[in-house]
Each structure stands twice: as C-alpha cells, then as structure tokens.
Amino acid sequence: MKILVVEDEDAIRDLITINLEMVGYEVFSAEDGLIAKKFLESESVDLILLDVMIPGIDGFSLIEQIKTSEVPVIFVTAKESVLDRVKGLRLGADDYIVKPFDTMELLARIEVALRRYNKNEDVIKFKHLQVYTNQRIVKIDNKEIYLTAKEYDLLFLFLQNRNIALAREQILDRVWGFAYIGESRTVDIHVQRIREKLCLKDHIKTVFKVGYRLED
Fold first, then answer.
1. pTM of the full structure
2. Which of 79, 84, 91, 147 gets the most CB atoms within 10 Å of its CB?
3. Where do the structural domains in the chain lie, given as residue ranges?
C-alpha cells in the first residue's frame, strides 16, 4: 500500500512516515502542495494524508485539483473548527483528523478508509501465518487454526501495529471496547493463548510495565 504524506512540518512528517513504514506501508512525502500535485501527476497512491496549511497550494485547494473517486484523502491538520471540518468533508475528504493526534487512531482511520475503498488486501502474511481478513480465518501451512472472536481481533490488532508497543489499556479499548468492565489480566490470558496456538512466543514480546509488541 502506497501513502502520500503532504505536510510542511518536518517533525510531524517524519513521525507519520516512521509509524506508517513500521506497519508495512510504502510512504512518499511532499512538503508543499505544488510538489504533491506534481508527484500525483506521474505516480499513483492508495491514500493521501493532507495538511491544510501548506505552502504552494493549500490543502483545501489541492484536494479540489487531485481528488478522484479511487483515492481516499484524510486531512491531518491543526484547523479544528467545525466550519473547517465541514469544508474539508464537503470538498471530498474521507476523514478529518485534528493535530495533535494519537498514532494508533491515525492508523485505525487509515485502515478504515482503505477498507471502504476495498484497497486492503484479503490476505495478511506474517512469518508462518496467513490471515484471511474477509473470512476471519488464520492458517499455518494451509491448516486452519481455530481462534475465538477475541483472539482473532487481538491478533489483527497486533498485525496492524507491528513493532509498536501497545498498552494493556489500549488493547482492552480496541478489542473489548470502551464499555468493557474487567481487569487487564484478560489481555494477558488472551496473549498467552495466541502465542501458543500460533507459535508466536518469539514474536509477541512483553513490554515491561506497559503491555505487548508484535515484532516483525
């Protein structure tokens, strides 16, 4: 999957790029609207992350020139007023994220946008695993491995956040939901189960006093 990051602040552009590359995206970047427009005239991407206040051509003007029905655009901007959000969405943006943002939220919104456009691959491969996302099936050497619904959701969360440390509280929120009433020990139990079922003991690492990380 190819993503173009259009952002004039070096620190933010680098942060987004690093996090996207860590989970397997191919990332291109542009520091202003003119460079982005020129790039898109010769290259195709699967998604665009676009700041509004960029030099050359601002984000609102750029989206009018580059937006197609095949490529999702997500605004990532400091402009937080309702009017700005409405304007961005009316111009064709698929989502609107206000800075500062949480990296996990950004990744989740990208995932949703790609899925909406049917750009996500049906099969995710990791080491010895094949994960068929449409069917929610996991196989090892073409042999299906039974997982409960929560075990599958937990595995999918790890796969979408490879090499990123996930706190137990974050995992509870993403897999069990904000309304879940229980203790974080539930996470430990499910991690242990998928480690054993899927032979991932060497890849799902415990992060001391934080949670877990799936290492690629």
1. 0.59
2. 147
3. 2-116, 123-214
What whole-number distance in Å separates Cα of residue 96 and Cα of residue 104? Answer: 15
Q: Per CATH, the architecture of 123-214 is what?
A: Orthogonal Bundle (1.10)
Distances in Å between the Cα of 148 and the Cα atoms of 68, 151, 163, 174, 201 are: 39, 5, 24, 16, 18
Q: What is the mean pLDDT of each run of 10 residues along the chain (216 residues)?
A: 92 92 88 94 92 93 84 90 90 91 90 78 83 87 91 93 91 79 82 96 93 92
- Chain Cα centroid distance, residue 5: 13
